[in-house]
Fold this protein.
Amino acid sequence: MNIVKQMYKMSALLLVALMMPQGVRAADDAQQRAIGISQVVTVCRFCDLRYKDMSLNSINEADFTGAFMHGINFSWSELKDSHFSSANLVMARLEWADFDGADFSKAQIEEAAMFRSTFRRANFSMANLSRSNLSYSELGEANLQTAILRNAVLTNARLNGANLRKADLTGVDLAGARLRGSDLQGALLDRANLQGADLTGAIFTGASLKEANFSTSFLSEVNFRNADMQGANFSNAVLEGVNFSGANLSQADLSGAVILGSMLRGANLCNAKLPDGTLGFCAIESAEKKPPATSQAPPAPPTASPEQPAAAAPPVAPAPEQPAAPPAAPPAAEPAAPAPPLLPAVMYDNSLPSALNPLSGARRGTRL
């Protein structure tokens, strides 16, 4: 029995001796890889980091300019003031991360997971974020000028004070998002979903919002001057102090909307569904229905041929005198056309002072 016990002890010691170098070597390799990664992420310009796992790291002010980072994982990391200009971040994982002040200008970030991350004051100018998911992310005061966000998801995202001038937001989902004071001048938002969004103080001057969905949204002091909103949906929305001057609202749906103190001068409401259920007046069609005024010159009198003298007209007997007819009665005055119906009371807020009511002094009896 003693011999058997000794043999077991010797075999156990032998196994431990064989395994110790491998364990030490594995630990050394892991330590070297960690050191290598820490050196790469600090400055890695135009390098290849495809599918690297850099999650749960704090690497602020790193430089990844022009790097190829397809499918990289930065989730739960902190990369404040880092540089990703012209980098390839297609299908990257950037969720639950902190990218405040980062530079993503001209970067390719299509189909990336960017939800619940912070991008305050980040620079996305000329970047491509098509089909990326930024829901519940913070993009306050971010620069998205001329950026491409086609079919991107920004539900419940915060873009207060963001710069979205001339950005391409075609088909973007901004349901429940906050865009207070955002600048979207000249932006493309055709078929965009802004249902339930807070657009207080946002600027959409000259923007394209064809078939956009604003239903149940709150729009206070929003500027839609000269915007194209053909077929847009404003049903059950609250429009307070909104500027629609010169905007194209043809075929728009305003049913159930509450419009208070808003400016509609020069707006095109042709065939738009108004809050009272009537259709908007089409000024162009009415002008086309008027018969054109034609001026025809009286026919010229026939002239006699120089070769054949004109025949003398036979004498005409004088007509017998007839008694003078009694003076004709003046024509009956035509009944005045009925005045077009006024818009419903919800269209105006007469309680507002004239300085705050853009429609004070405007003609109230005209169809819009």
Helices lie at 2-42, 283-289. Residues 21-40, 285-290, 304-313, 339-368 have pLDDT under 50 and may be disordered.
